[in-house]
């Protein structure tokens, strides 16, 4: 009996033992066989016997007729049948006992649940009564506090009303005193402002008179500068015209001197060539020397139409004469040519009755009487 009670058995939701799941035939060798109940009957052997009977009942057909299965008698001994019967009776007894135990347990659980429900209801009633008492206490407490607060607020309102009346009286007194003080200070400030305004008016009149005097003096100085400026303007206009005339005379004089110098140089070159045995006339010499000089100036990168200095002109002329002499077969250097041409030019000037060391004419500024004018000198 102890073995049968200790065997594993599952119960359903109603407390009845649930049927055990028998292993299938195709579970193989890995399936765990059910435990033996200790009565000599194995559930695996019973399942194997059932499978053999099922296979024999569904034997295949042969020649249109079912094949006669080979009947194999599996004999069970009397002892195993007796054990199986005894096991069924014991299981029935155990099942009835388990049902009785489940019914007793259900009744105990119901009694316990009823006791628990009664306890919960009692706790709810006690808790409700406690809460009602606490709420009543809190309501009375806060009602008293509200009454005290209202009384305190009423007293505070009366105190504030009294203080407000006192503050109003103090403010009115302070305002009256301030108004009186303000009127007194305003009167004094107006008197001081009136005195300051009179003093400022007198100072403004004096300053106005002083500015009028300075303005008259400035007008006089401006008039003097205006007259000086007018005279300076007239003098500048007059000097501009004189400067134009002077530049015209300078241009004429320079042009005349250049022409005379060119003619004298050509004559000197012609005389020099004749002394060297070269017969050439002045026009041919002028043309050839001009071409050579222009060519030299082009090679030097200078403009042939502009001759800034007489030294450059003289040097170019000497180079041209030297080249011309070389073309005629006369070998002469530039320094010798410069000395000989200078001597010939001086001789020509002496024959013409002019002194080569004569001083230059007086400056044109002295001739036209230019002078500086300072403002204010009239």
From TrEMBL:
<keyword id="KW-0175">Coiled coil</keyword>
<protein>
    <submittedName>
        <fullName>Uncharacterized protein</fullName>
    </submittedName>
</protein>
<feature type="compositionally biased region" description="Polar residues">
    <location>
        <begin position="1"/>
        <end position="10"/>
    </location>
</feature>
<feature type="coiled-coil region">
    <location>
        <begin position="81"/>
        <end position="253"/>
    </location>
</feature>
<feature type="region of interest" description="Disordered">
    <location>
        <begin position="1"/>
        <end position="42"/>
    </location>
</feature>
